[in-house]
Amino acid sequence: MLICKGYSLGLNINLLRRTLICFQGHHINRYEGNNSSIHCQCQVTGQQSRNFFNFSKPSRKREYSGRQLVGYSMDQMFEVVSDVENYYTFVPWCKQSIVFKRGPGHLKADLIVGFPPINESYTSNVTMVKPYLVRAECVDGRLFNHMLTLWRFSPGLKREQQSCVVDFQISFEFKSALHSQLSNLFFDQVARQMEGAFIREAGKRYGPAKMQPKNLLLNNQTLKS
Fold it and tell me: In whole angstroms, what is the distance from residue 27 CA to residue 45 CA?
């Protein structure tokens, strides 16, 4: 039985290890014993099949990229994204954000993220180049093997000065296999909601946008002046 921050998950590790593994369209059953082996349950014809296979370890790394044309200036979007100490007020699932070290162009912050059954903290090292870039990297390694978030801001439409292109990228890998499996269920949704939350926050601070956000990755759309 696994217990994570007060949540009890009815998962038995040995049972999970005996779960059917899919191999090239066939179901393979792994049996535990003194000599662990893998037996294919499909009918084999022709040459005698081998009773073992080499399986590559599934990757726990997840990545997401977004690119939007928005009705706010580069400076406005930079100010929202670099305001780490207020993340807890508008970033989904961010329960706490405390900046404990600050210098020219960089800061360090402790953040707590929480969505059942995950409720974990990590330290983020944030680098900023106004108004072009905000880069945040996990540095403590308790929760993630690695975690990198990158925001880049570039000029938008020539005819509309209060516009810019926002490139958002996130890449991470949980240390925990359990956290990794849970993240597979909602990763894309979480990433999209995070991306949208910063644009909505810009609306609260600076008023209505000059245009509706436009997804530039949809159907490979290009920016037209």
Answer: 16
How confident is the model at residue 198, as a pLDDT? 96
Span 115-126, average pLDDT: 80
In the predicted model, is pLDDT for residue 78 greater than 60? yes
Do residues 171 and 61 lie in contact, with contact meaning Cβ atoms separated by under 8 Å?
yes
Buried b (16+ CB within 10 A) or exposed e, 60-98: bebebebbbbbbbbbebbbbbbbbbeebeeebeebeebe
Q: What is the pLDDT of residue 176?
A: 73
DSSP 5-70: TTEEE---HHHHHTS-EEETTEEEEEE-SSS-EEEE-S---SSPPPS----PPPP-EEEEEEEEEE
